[in-house]
Amino acid sequence: MALGFVCMVAFAVALARATLVPSPASVSMTHTNLHPGNSIRLYFDQPDWRDTVKQVGGNIVLGVPFGILLPVLFPRTRGLVRVVLMTALVMLTVEVAQGLLVTGRAFDIDDVILNSTGAFLGYLVLGRRLGRALHPRRTRWWHPRRADTADTADTAATEERPTGRWRKRPTADTGIERRPAPDPDRTVTSRRSRWGAALPAALRAKRP
Q1: What is the dihedral of CA 152, 154, 159, 160, to 10 degrees?
Q2: Any idea what DSSP says for residue 74?
Q3: Strand ranges (DSSP E) for the chain?
Q4: Which helix (H) or strand (E) covers residue 68, if one does?
Q5: Confidence tier at 110 by pLDDT (50, 70, 90)
Q6: CA angle 72-74-77, nearest 5°?
Q7: pLDDT in tens, 158-192
Q8: String of b and e for 173-205 (b: at least 16 CB within 10 Å)?
Q9: Suppose 158 and one of 26, 109, 123, 168 were both cysteines; which one would form an S-S bond, judging by CB atoms 3.0 to 4.6 Å apart?
Q10: CA 39 to CA 136: how far, in whole Å?
Q11: Ramachandran bin of 17, using left for φ above 0, alpha for ψ from -120 to 50, beta for the remaining angles
């Protein structure tokens, strides 16, 4: 965790230097792009492929640390959709700050798309594994329960709660067997009949 925090701080400094440092020499070349895909298409149409790799690849690489560090430092952001959305939100804020406050830089929606793609790749390659290794896996409501746990809970509930005059008892063969509970009136009657049968025999034994 400490190493992840240090990496996040270092990444934040590098991100600020790469995106929020003014570039007066680029004022004439910058333009705002609100249409997804326009800047990416211009990158691939230009003859200098090195600049294409620098622009497209650089923005993708810039988003990779989000996909790795977010699941490690913030367990609630684990999940592919959450990581991508969080990255898009952060980079959208950076792009807005560039367009409004930084000289020589402009808002470009394609940069947000490329950064989110980098976070997507970083999470699939390494972020998901690190998140699961450092934090316990979340239990979803649609996850099935373990069979042994469910059977133990049902058996305990069956033993503790009798139903009417029938009591459920677990057995090894059939699972649950119903046995009638003892009737107190019938028990008293049987005891009286045994005493009634034994009394005349005792009196006959005492006669001379």
Answers
A1: 110
A2: -
A3: 166-171, 175-180
A4: helix 58-73
A5: very high
A6: 105
A7: 555 554 444 455 555 555 555 555 555 555 555 55
A8: eeeeeeeeeeeeeeeeeeeeeeeeeeeeeeeee
A9: 168
A10: 41
A11: alpha
Tokens of 133: 């290794």
CA dihedral (15, 18, 23, 28) positive or negative? negative
SS3 173: coil
Q: Which amino acid is at 9?
A: V
For residue 106, is pLDDT > 70? yes
Alpha helices in 80-183 (DSSP H): 80-101, 109-122, 128-134, 147-160
Task: Work out the pLDDT band at 146, boundaries 50, 70, 90.
Answer: low
Cα(92)–Cα(106) distance, integer angstroms: 12
Q: How far apart are CA 20 and CA 47, in angstroms?
A: 28
The residue behind tokens 């373990």 is: 146
Pair of tokens at residue 93: 């804020």
- The CA distance from 32 to 18, in Å, is 18
CA distances, 98 to each of 18, 51, 83, 88, 116 (Å) = 11, 21, 22, 15, 17
Q: Are 69 and 7 in contact (CB under 8 A)?
A: yes
Give the position of tokens 């409004």.
Answer: 100
Count of positions (residues) in the chain: 208
